[in-house]
Amino acid sequence: MFLSLRSVSLLAIMAALASAQSTTPAIPPAHVGIVNLQKAVSDTAEIKKAQAALQAKYQPRQQAVENLQRVLQDIDQQLRAPSLAPEKEAELRQTGTEKQKQLQRLTDDLQSDVNADRQDILGRVGREMSDVIRKIAEARGLDVVVDVSTTLYFKPALDLTAEATAAYDKAYPPK
Predict the structure, then answer these.
(1) Environment class of 126 (CB within 10 Å of its CB; exposed 0-12, middle 13-18, buried 19+)
(2) Cβ distance 129 to 171 under 8 Å?
(3) Quick one: 5-171 is in which CATH superfamily?
(4) pTM of the complete model
(5) Angle at 145 between CA 42 and CA 41, to 5 degrees
(6) Alpha carbon 16 to chain centroid distance?
(7) Tens of pLDDT along the chain (175 residues)?
(8) Hey, where are the domains in the chain?
(9) How many angstroms separate the CA atoms of 58 and 46, rounded?
(10) H/E/C letters for each residue in the chain?
């Protein structure tokens, strides 16, 4: 029986693969954990307390923004009135322009301050949460922990999110 050149090449490739597999050391399967880091952090008691504190801290400034918005709505309503005297219209437009600039400054400053405080809190809690997750992984003998945002599929039993939040709350109770 004659083998074609193609059959011989295929047999040679299969033999080479079999030989390569027998010389390659076996890699043990990795033990993997999954965590939803964003949820684990946002569910901590410390973050919930910090959110309430930020809301209380910035409430007066938020109220000032809302008051200015109402003043601008009032000015806009007055400008729509029929038979508005030209002097009064000019005065209202001038006041509206000043109030609009004031509102923009207040809004920008408020947003900047809130974002800075939020980033400080989230950065610190995120670093602490990473330490907690590392300790959980070491205790469970995990080789790698992957964030759920980069995972297409996983078994629910691999999810460490609730355990990480509980461990964080125990290690870092809100002050």
Answers:
(1) middle
(2) no
(3) Skp domain (3.30.910.20)
(4) 0.71
(5) 10
(6) 49
(7) 454 545 546 556 666 666 655 555 677 888 999 999 999 999 999 999 999 999 999 999 999 999 999 999 999 999 888 888 889 989 999 999 999 999 999 999 999 999 999 999 999 999 999 999 999 999 999 999 999 998 899 999 999 999 999 999 999 998 8
(8) 5-171
(9) 18
(10) CCCCHHHHHHHHHHHHHHHHHHHCCCCCCCCEEEECHHHHHHCCHHHHHHHHHHHHHHHHHHHHHHHHHHHHHHHHHHHCCCCCCHHHHHHHHHHHHHHHHHHHHHHHHHHHHHHHHHHHHHHHHHHHHHHHHHHHHHHHCCCEEEEHHHCCCCCHHHECHHHHHHHHHHHCCCC
Query: In the block, which residue shows the tokens 């965590």?
Result: 35
In this structure, the chain runs to a length of: 175
Q: Which two tokens stand for residue 133?
A: 């997750």
